[in-house]
Amino acid sequence: MSIVKVIEVIASSNESFDDATRNAVIEASKSVKNIKSVYVKEMNANVTGDRIVSFAVNAKISFELES
Q1: For residue 2, what pLDDT is reported?
Q2: Does position 67 have pLDDT exceeding 90, yes or no?
Q3: Domains and CATH numbers, the chain
Q4: How far is CA 17 from the centre of its chain?
Q5: 3-state secondary structure string, 3-38?
Q6: C-alpha span between 43 and 40 (Å, rounded)
Q7: Are 34 and 64 in contact (CB under 8 A)?
């Protein structure tokens, strides 16, 4: 039997939503091991004038606890 926990992470990027999601996983992996999946719950972007200047995601990251 395995136990899986879920944490919620907010991450951003100046490049894209994909990059923001990667940043969420990179940051979470600094303190959590055995990451199994990431689920993007929400996305938003900040706009200045007519340009998107940053992208952000609210992501749920699942990881398996070591026995």
Answers
A1: 86
A2: no
A3: 4-64 (3.30.1660.10)
A4: 10
A5: CEEEEEEEEEECCCHHHHHHHHHHHHCCCCCCEEEE
A6: 7
A7: yes
Dihedral angle computed from the Cα positions of residues 22, 23, 25 and 27, in that order, rounded to the nearest 10 degrees? 160
Joined together, the tokens standing for residue 5 give 């926990």
CA distance 63 to 36: 5
Distance CA 42, CA 19 (A): 14
Q: For residue 66, what pLDDT is reported?
A: 81
pTM of this prediction?
0.89
| Token pair listed for 66 | 């070591």
Q: Are 22 and 54 contacting, i.e. CB atoms less than 8 angstroms apart?
A: no
